[in-house]
TrEMBL record:
<keyword id="KW-0479">Metal-binding</keyword>
<dbReference type="GO" id="GO:0008934">
    <property type="term" value="F:inositol monophosphate 1-phosphatase activity"/>
</dbReference>
<dbReference type="Pfam" id="PF00459">
    <property type="entry name" value="Inositol_P"/>
</dbReference>
<protein>
    <recommendedName>
        <fullName>Inositol monophosphatase</fullName>
    </recommendedName>
</protein>
<dbReference type="GO" id="GO:0007165">
    <property type="term" value="P:signal transduction"/>
</dbReference>
<dbReference type="InterPro" id="IPR020550">
    <property type="entry name" value="Inositol_monophosphatase_CS"/>
</dbReference>
<keyword id="KW-0460">Magnesium</keyword>
<dbReference type="GO" id="GO:0046872">
    <property type="term" value="F:metal ion binding"/>
</dbReference>
<keyword id="KW-0378">Hydrolase</keyword>
<dbReference type="GO" id="GO:0006020">
    <property type="term" value="P:inositol metabolic process"/>
</dbReference>
<dbReference type="InterPro" id="IPR000760">
    <property type="entry name" value="Inositol_monophosphatase-like"/>
</dbReference>
<dbReference type="InterPro" id="IPR020583">
    <property type="entry name" value="Inositol_monoP_metal-BS"/>
</dbReference>
<dbReference type="GO" id="GO:0046854">
    <property type="term" value="P:phosphatidylinositol phosphate biosynthetic process"/>
</dbReference>
Amino acid sequence: MTLSAQELQEIEQQAIGFAKKTGRILMDRFQRPMSVDYKDKEGWKDPVTEADKVAEAFLSEETSRLFPDHGFVGEEGSGREAGSSRLMWVVDPLDGTTNFSNGLPSFCCSIALVEDGEPVVGAIYMPWPETKEGRIIHARKGGGAWEGEVRLQVASGNKPISGRVVVRGGFLPGRFRPSKDLLANGGQQRSVGSTASELAMVADGTYQYTLHGNPHSWDVAAGIILVKEAGGTSLSHGKNGWYPLTTFKNNPPGGTQEPITQESLRHWQSPVLSGNPEMV
C-alpha cells in the first residue's frame, strides 16, 4: 500500500501523541533512583533502564492497538513483522540512556514510520528548560518539519560557519577523514550524546551538520525525515562513496532490493551525514 497525503497527516498526529505520552513516561522516571543494566560484554557501554523498557512497551502496544497491520522494531528488542502493509514503526524509546541514567537532561524519544524502507513520518520528544512538555519536532513526507506552529529550516549557507556548532565525531579510520579545510573551518564540535536529538537540531537549524559514524536504524529513522522536510538531506557512505540516504533497504547504488523486515532494520548500521544539501 502507498499512504495518501491524508493518511500521512493522520498518522503524523498519532506520532505526536505517542511522543508526548512517551515523554511523560521518561520524565516521571528521570532523576529518580533507578537500576541500570548493560547489554554489552564490557558491562558499561550500552546501558538500559526501566524507563527504556516501559517506554518501548507502551509504544509497541499503542502502535499495535491503533495500527494492527503495521510492523514494529524497537531498540530494546520488541518487534513484529508488517506483512503486506510494508509499514514499520522504528523507535528508540530512550536515545541517550547514559545521559538519562546520570541525570543529564540530554536525551529523547525517537519515533518513525517507515514505508517499504523509506521514513515517511517522524516525531522526536526532547526535554527542554522551562517547558513542562518538552519539545516535539515532527514531520511527514511532503508536509514540512514543525515544532508547534513554527515551520523549521536547516541552517543556511554552503560552508560551515566557524563559530556555530556541528557534530563531527564520526570520522572512522580508513573510511573517511576530515580535510584540512574542514578541520580549520568546520564549525564548533559539540555532541549532546543523543543521535536522534542531534538530528532534530539539524532540522531546526541549531546544528549546521552532523556526522554519525555507525548509527542504527532507530537512531536516525525519525531524524532523516525531519531533516529532509526541513530542507536538508542525509547521506550514507558505501564502497563507492557518499550516496543519498532515502531508504533502509540495503541498496546503495548497485545494491540489491531486498524487502524490509524486522531483521534487516535491526541489523542496519551505516555512517550518516546530515545537513543543508549545499553544505554536506
